[in-house]
Write a structure and sequence with these properties.
CATH superfamily of the largest domain: Trypsin-like serine proteases
Shape: globular
Number of strands: 13
Largest sheet: 6 strands, antiparallel, barrel
CATH architecture of the largest domain: Beta Barrel
Number of helices: 3
Oligomer: single chain
CATH class of the largest domain: Mainly Beta
CATH topology of the largest domain: Thrombin, subunit H
Structural class: mainly beta
Distance between the termini: 28 Å
Strand content: 25-35%
Radius of gyration: 16 Å
């Protein structure tokens, strides 16, 4: 987030950093759904117009507040990109990574984030922008069914799109819920162009189908 407050260590124990073998730099963020599954944006694993990155050259770093600290890494076993992902419009911009080892068992300070089974996007911790406003800003590139816009219409407190960082999270009674996954924006911190996020609520059925986990039974 641009112009937001710096997070205290341990504030986001579900957040992971995606790294690629040939550059060893942070390329995207992801969120732990359980000890072995990470959700991220599909464009993060799309290295060249539909050519998917191989799981043997990507890994995640977990439990780090400072990216310059000694890393704690977990390899990726499988990558699942939503079959309807469009690399031109960024519609259906969501992917799942199955990790080689259960992270929560390896590192006790990690906590998975909850899916918004009973939380609507309008409950998020940033203002969700009206669909009509987003359609005016982005035209037919914005899909009101699968995407949400969030940010401040006349402010620079928006998601910076140079890197896919900072999922849209809502805290309900202290429990974090993943509402959106950063997808795109006009430019980094451009006023009047709110950030566009994949609407996680829309994709819950697909997430449960791929992972084989019923996240919403007790949610």
């Amino acid at each position: 987030i641009v112009d937001g407050n710096k997070a205290a260590p341990g504030s986001y124990p579900w957040k992971v950093s995606l790294r690629i073998d040939d550059v060893n730099n942070h390329v995207c963020s992801g969120a732990l759904l359980d000890e072995q599954w990470v959700v991220t944006a599909a464009h993060c694993v799309d290295i060249d117009m539909g050519n998917w990155i191989g799981q043997n050259i990507i890994w995640v770093e977990v439990g780090e507040h400072d990216r310059n600290e000694s890393p704690r890494t977990v390899d990726v076993r499988n990558i699942f990109v939503h079959p309807q992902y469009d690399d031109e419009t960024y519609d259906y911009d969501i992917a799942l990574l199955k990790l080689e080892h259960p992270t929560v068992f390896l590192y006790r300070d990690l906590i998975p984030i909850c899916l918004p089974c009973s939380i609507t996007p309008e409950d998020g911790n940033m203002p969700v922008v009206d669909h009509k406003y987003c359609l005016k800003a982005y035209g037919n590139k914005f899909n009101p069914s699968t995407q949400i816009c969030a940010g401040y219409k006349d402010s620079e407190v928006v998601s910076c799109q140079e890197k896919s960082d900072g999922p849209l999270v809502y805290f309900h009674h202290g429990v974090p819920y993943l509402v959106g996954i950063v997808s795109f924006g006009a430019e980094c911190a451009r006023p009047y162009y709110p950030g566009v996020y994949a609407n996680v609520y829309y994709f819950i059925d697909w997430i449960e189908s791929v992972t084989g986990i019923d996240f919403c039974t007790n949610n």
